[in-house]
User: Fold this.
Amino acid sequence: MSPSTDTDTGTDTGTGAGAAAAADRDLLPIASGAQTLAALRALLRGHRLLTVSAVTVLLLGTGIGLLTAPLLGRIVDLVVEQRGPDSLTVPMVLLVVVALARGAATAAGSALVARLGETVLAALRERFIERALRLPLERVERAGSGDLVSRVTGDVTLIARSVRQALPEFSRSVLTIALTLAGLAVLDWRFLLAVLPAVPVQILAVRWYLRGAVPVYSAHRVATGALQHQLLDSVGGARTVRAFRLNGRHTGLIEQRSRSAVDLALRGIHLVTGFFSRLNLAEFIGLGSILVTGFFLVDNGSVSIGTATAAALYFHSLFNPINAALVLLDDVQSAGAGLTRLVGVSELPAEAEPERPAEPADGSVTVSALGHAYVDGHPVLRGVDLTVRPGERVALVGASGAGKTTLAKLIAGVHRPSEGTIALGGVDSRELGPAGLRRAVTLISQEVHVFAGPLAEDLRLARPGATDEELTAALAGVGALEWVEALPEGLATVVGEGGHQLTVTQAQHLALARLVLADPPVAILDEATADAGSAGARTLESAAVQALEGRTGLMVAHRLPQAATADRVVVLDQGRIVETGSHAELVAAGGRYAALWAAWSDSRRPQDPPASPRIPAQG
Assistant:
């Protein structure tokens, strides 16, 4: 493609006004705390047995562990009373039994909690992917690819790590704190009162931390998504960036968003440091209060030295679980911020389907008074009228930014037109519903993704129940069977990331075979041969003709010879149809298409090396 901003599709690589607008995208929604808790409760309801088992085993392990302090206190009393070494045997054996039982119960409980967390996360992740795949592409484009990618990668990874590591530890810590406080009350209610001076300090510390951490971590996740989007934008449009010498501008944008993400991360570290200094103060106050209370109670004979020792050990044993729970608030806050972003997408309402979706009568396409603008006041299409007969192959031709791709995407349902109507098979596209529209139209662009896995499964994405014979027939129908049979394991060959790497031509062959398997009445090829090179483009043009056989075809023509093979050529300029007719008719008419054809013909003179004809960009 020629190095230019793709104003046709409404996307940009950071050039011009597009870069300024990139930082202010319409991001996908983020769920509120109430919505996130409601979603988690709904997911947990389906795993009641596992939830009850995990909580019960953790409670059992924590309760057994609380016996350690009273046993140590009993040993102190026995020593003070000078009962002799033999009296220590039973308490010592019980300490060993308690340690073993606590270790076993804690390990089992942690495993159950981790399993519960992984199960819930898997369900949430599946719901997120299912909903994300059904989002209108127009909505995803408005948000930017980085927002969605950061949620399905960074946020999921962060939550998964918290589920495996933080959640079991956090659960144990909370239970230990609650049961230890109950143990202090059992020893003597005044020991529980002695803990109270530390509580306000801890509460104020937590409130101070949460008040600052929630917005900081949420903002950090958003900043990370913006940075990822800019990286994808710059790398994906590298050729355009280099062609327009925008390297410095894009480097500056990446540096700016990186600095924003780093600044927010440093703010988080500052919050954690201040948080721990406040916790250390609470520990000092609480332990001092317990020791003073124990001294007075032992002095007046209310409790034994062993009981006071047990109380001090109880409070000292709270240091680790309290610190662990509050330290893990850092991970919990980060995971919670990621969770709200996942739930925000997974709870989006599904695309509305009509109660009685209509069925197209044939493969005809009728566009009436169609207009569209990605930005208000800057229309890309204006008053477009076009009728395509069933089975007709129409080529859309025009300079970059003429509106070809936008028209193709509107017909395919990727975008909703700003004005006008589109009818497929005599039925308004709005009456078909999203599912009906996907069955009626298939769009193949020049960017084809090869999914990791066996080649046969990649093909079956278009028709899950297809047999090997049907797959072979589809490949043969587009001229791809020869190279597929030459693969190491044929249809069973693993392709995509980590497998056999397909060439650009082979990947497009695969897309055309999927088109044959999907068998829609209308197919749109959006410059599907653009990146294949001259020889590959000729091969794919022949394959495209075979794939379109028996169905209506619209081709966004990148190579003029491809347009010449169409039944009709439609020429767009500045969002309007300026010419329409067969290749021969338009060449004879001497208009814009004839000028494009003449320019290509001149490029094919003998003194010039053969080159793929490309439509020159204007302006």
